[in-house]
Specification:
The longest helix is centred in the N-terminal third of the chain and has 39 residues. A two-stranded antiparallel sheet has the order 1-2. The protein is mainly α and 241 residues long. The protein is built from seven helices and four strands; from the N terminus they run E-H-H-H-H-H-H-H-E-E-E. Helix 1 crosses helix 2, helix 2 crosses helix 4 and helix 4 crosses helix 7. Helix content is 53%, strand content 8%.
Length: 241
């Protein structure tokens, strides 16, 4: 078992592996198609040169490189658990996904296999998290502890100017940023409460937190605030189905 999810139904390692393998197979198929296209183009070029009277030594056969899945099985479980929790919170707050979610464009931007289960989960989690955060925005100020967490995460990922201390950075934050942190903190508590209601327990081989506030960087998404699952471990059992 990968995760016990109470009334939502448990998630087996077979389910996790199925999502990961689906992506691997799709990427392998893409790699083979690209290699075949390149091979055809190479041979056509050689034939044209030969037809023009040039002595041509055929190039080595172009073969597909092994597919590299851009996410781990842990991230698959994170997406599955997150989708259940964010989906429940969306229903609670009357939040719905827009009709024009750009699945294909978003998947391409994140270099995820188009139409894959993981891409769908990842994209919908991203949108639901943002919409939920917007629904929780209020005039409440964020705690200094949470602001320190954001500052530390940004600093560790190049998001703070060199030499800029916390006080200087904190003073430069506008109202919109402060509201975003405070709202994300509220979402974090609701995620934890929902996990409690579901009595979520994770296989200890998987370690992850759910992102409630993140920013995009050249290196990828930087998690600024997360809802931790560190105390939600369970003894793994074999899937006997």
């Amino acid at each position: 078992m990968a995760a016990y999810m109470g009334s939502a139904g448990d998630i087996t390692e077979k389910q996790v592996d199925k999502v990961w393998t689906e992506a691997y197979d799709a990427l392998s198929k893409q790699a083979k198609a690209a290699a075949a296209e390149a091979e055809t183009a190479q041979r056509e070029t050689e034939k044209k040169r030969a037809d023009a009277g040039e002595k041509v030594t055929p190039a080595p056969t172009i073969t597909a490189e092994q597919a590299q899945v851009p996410f781990t099985r842990t991230e698959v479980l994170q997406a599955l658990v997150g989708h259940e929790i964010y989906g429940r919170l969306a229903a609670k707050h009357s939040v719905t996904l827009p009709a024009d979610v750009p699945y294909a464009e978003f998947a391409a931007q994140k270099k995820l296999p188009a139409d894959s289960t993981y891409a769908k989960l990842y994209i919908e989690n991203y949108y639901l998290r943002g919409l939920l955060t917007q629904s929780l925005v209020s005039a409440t100020a964020p705690t200094e502890e949470d602001m320190h967490l954001v500052y530390d995460q940004l600093g560790a990922n190049g998001g703070v100017e060199p030499g800029q201390d916390f006080a200087t950075w904190r003073a430069a934050q506008g109202q919109q940023n402060l509201q975003a942190v405070a709202a994300a903190a509220k979402l974090r508590e609701e995620v934890r409460a929902t996990a409690d209601e579901l009595q979520v327990k994770l296989n200890p081989r998987y370690a992850f937190d759910l992102t409630v506030l993140g920013v995009e960087s050249q290196a990828g998404t930087v998690d600024l605030l997360t809802a931790d699952f560190d105390d939600r471990w369970a003894v793994p059992v074999d899937d006997l189905s």
